[in-house]
Amino acid sequence: MRRFSIQTKIVLPFLLLFGVISVIVPLLTVELFAWKYSEQFTRETQGWLEVIIETGFITEDIEKVKDAYSVEVMIFGSDFTMNASTLRDLPDSEQQLEVLAESMRLEQVKQSFQKGEATHVTHDVTLGGKHYKVFYHLLSFGRYYCLLRPMDEISEAKRTLTLYMLGIAILVMTLVALISHRIGKNITEPITDLVGFTEQVAEGNLDEQCAIKTQDEIGDLAVAFNQMTQDLKQSRDKLIQAERLATAGKMSASFAHEIRNPLSSMRMLSQMLLQRPHVSDEQRQSLEYILEEIERIDTIVKGLMDFARPTRLNLERQSLVPVLQSVLALMEANLTHHQIQLVLELDTELPAFAFDSDKIKQAFMNVVLNAMEAMSEGGTITVSAFKQEDSVCIKVIDTGIGISEEDIEHLFEPFFTRKTKGTGLGLANVKRILAEHAGTVEIASVLGEGTTVLMWLPLNMR
Ligand code: ADP
Ligand code: MG
């Protein structure tokens, strides 16, 4: 089982990183702000206290100070008894002498003033559940003047700022989540496609091609994968063909002989019957038809035997042109009968080289026969033979019906035929014969215009 998808692996670190940042940054900002704000707050209140002292307000009515600055004022005697206060609603428990002195930190204040080191003494104090910053001033007779400024403002400002920061953090996190999700999707989508395609290939469907959606590494991967699938398909097709060839070979070898023997008996008997006196016209026609069909079976069986026979080459160093000419001479009558014009472009200077003339004759005949059969309405067959580099090429061009693109890749498969009376073994044999000579055969064709067959034979067969 997969624990984390790539998408999660991309989104999660970003979210964690920004999560941490969005917690730490606002916390620091709020603290920094509060610190700066409280500095300013202290300076300002200190200023007020100085004004109060300078203007002599300090001895005036404390209520006036309270109204003027929205602060509370308390005055304690040197023995910490409360002389005056603007704070009225303190709970009873806090009004007791010691408790109040303790809350107001009067002992510490006293010590600070006694040491004389501090001119301004301040403390944070909680009275009646409210927070104050208290500014102390030493009056005559060791009395203490306390200016209490409520700290609600600071905590209120802190709260507002925290809320703002939290809002921004949530917004940033949402944006980060969305953007990283999008990035993750962009990356994973083509990969998911590729995985789907791989599964199809694994199921044996090699005809599909993976769509290339991106021009990056994943796109390259898709291209490589398509190439691989194509190669795989080609080698699979080759393997299938090789298997078919092998099967066909085995089958042919075992059947061909068995068929040919009874076939010759049938041919002989039919011919004997034909020669008998008193054969009616009707019987004669039937016998001729039987003989014709026997010939046809014989051709197929012969093709099969050629195809299946374990071949041993009878190599002989000789000229090619006379061999080709002998085949064409045999076919001349047939070509004329089909109103086919023969154009010869045979290079008579071709060097002699080693080949099996019977087999090359057979291959060449098959190709010329195919050309003839492709031109039932007549046409032209151009036969040329020429040398190119270390090879000799026999080229046969016809102006026949041509071959469809779909058929062209199956031409050399045994039993592939488009003819009602064809065996489909002609080109399979041609290919085999050329391969035995370490040569190749190529076919190019345009449907409706004609076909070109090139047979390449090496001059120096290894
Ligand atoms: P067959 O001639 O018995 O059909 P071949 O192996 O010789 O078998 O040829 C296979 C098929 O290739 C033919 O049925 C035909 O459709 C096609 N073909 C071969 N040569 C030509 C050609 N010159 N013009 C058109 N089609 C051809
Ligand atoms: Mg043929």
Structure explained in plain terms:
The chain has helices at 6-54, 62-69, 92-95, 97-103, 106-115, 152-202, 217-275, 281-308, 320-337, 357-373, 405-408, 426-436, and strands at residues 72-76, 82-85, 121-127, 130-138, 144-150, 316-318, 340-346, 353-355, 379-388, 391-398, 440-446, 450-458. The protein is an alpha+beta fold. It folds into 3 domains: 6-158, 2-Layer Sandwich (Beta-Lactamase), CATH 3.30.450.20; 217-307, Helix Hairpins (Orthogonal Bundle); 312-458, Histidine kinase-like ATPase, C-terminal domain (Heat Shock Protein 90, 2-Layer Sandwich). A hairpin with a 5-residue loop joins strand 4 (130-138) and strand 5. The site of magnesium ion has 4 residues, from helix 10.
Strand/helix succession: HHEEHHHEEEHHHEHEEHEEHHEE
Architecture (CATH level 2) name of the largest domain: 2-Layer Sandwich
Average pLDDT figure: 88
Distinct ligands: adenosine-5'-diphosphate, magnesium ion
First-to-last CA distance: 57 Å
CATH topology of the largest domain: Beta-Lactamase
Spatial extent as radius of gyration: 55 Å
Poorly predicted residue ranges: none
- Tell me the overall shape: rod-shaped
CATH top level label of the largest domain: Alpha Beta
Fraction of residues in β-strands = 15-25%
Query: CATH superfamily name of the largest domain?
Result: PAS domain
